[in-house]
Amino acid sequence: MKILLLSFILIGIVSCSSDDDSSCSDSIIETTSLENEYGCINTKYQMNIELSDDYMIIRNQSEFSEFVTGSCQPDIDFSNYDLIIGKKGLSNGNNSINYELIENCENGNQNLTVTFNQNETTEAPNLTYHALIPKLKDGQDLSVEINVN
Q1: Distance CA 139, CA 119 (A)
Q2: Does the pTM of the predicted model rise above 0.90?
Q3: What radius of gyration do the chain's Cα atoms show?
Q4: Average pLDDT of span 116-133
Q5: Cβ neighbours of residue 44 under 8 Å, at least 6 residues apart?
Q6: How many whole angstroms separate alpha carbon 77 and alpha carbon 61?
Q7: At residue 14, does pLDDT exceed 90?
Q8: Contacts of 101 (CB under 8 A, 6+ apart)
Q9: Average pLDDT over residues 96-120
Q10: How is the beta sheet containing 94-103 ordered, strand by strand?
Q11: Please, which residues bridge with residue 94 across strands?
Q12: pLDDT of 108 strictly over 80
């Protein structure tokens, strides 16, 4: 009888703990841009960073000044933001770029999905993409995934 009672208690504990695991869901984190926050114009063409199909995380103004060139050179509020910036070579023209930042509920790491919405023109641009994201915490990882539509 004691074994049966202990078995029911154990099953109850295990089933409750698995319910807690299923309540974890990833979060969409709002991003912004240099256009929205600082009035920069057409940054995909007007900003440059010496990368090729890669990205970097810029965490302070001195890194921004060292690595980013072009007509957009604002004083960024790096106490609140990190700048994710990269380059992508494309085989045809671009209409727009969309960004979605997701935080993993289990480990707190983030994934930025960058979607290039293309058109049929024959230009082959090498575009600069960027997102201002909330400041990453110490030890928090970020990855970038590129989609071309």
Answers
A1: 39
A2: no
A3: 22
A4: 95
A5: 94, 97, 125, 127, 128, 129
A6: 8
A7: no
A8: 28, 29, 30, 31, 110, 111, 112, 113, 131, 133
A9: 97
A10: 27-29, 94-103, 110-118, 142-148
A11: 118
A12: yes
Q: Which residues pair with 118 in a beta bridge?
A: 94
What is the residue whose two structure tokens read 């089933």?
15
Q: What is the token pair recorded at 92?
A: 């045809």
Helix ranges, the chain (H) = 2-22, 34-38, 43-46, 61-67
Question: Residue 90 class from Cβ within 10 Å (0-12 exposed, 13-18 middle, 19+ buried)?
Answer: middle
Average pLDDT over residues 34-60: 96
Cβ proximity of 86 and 129 under 8 Å: yes
Burial 58-85 (b: 16+ CB within 10 A, else e): beeeeebeeebeeebeeebebeebbbbb
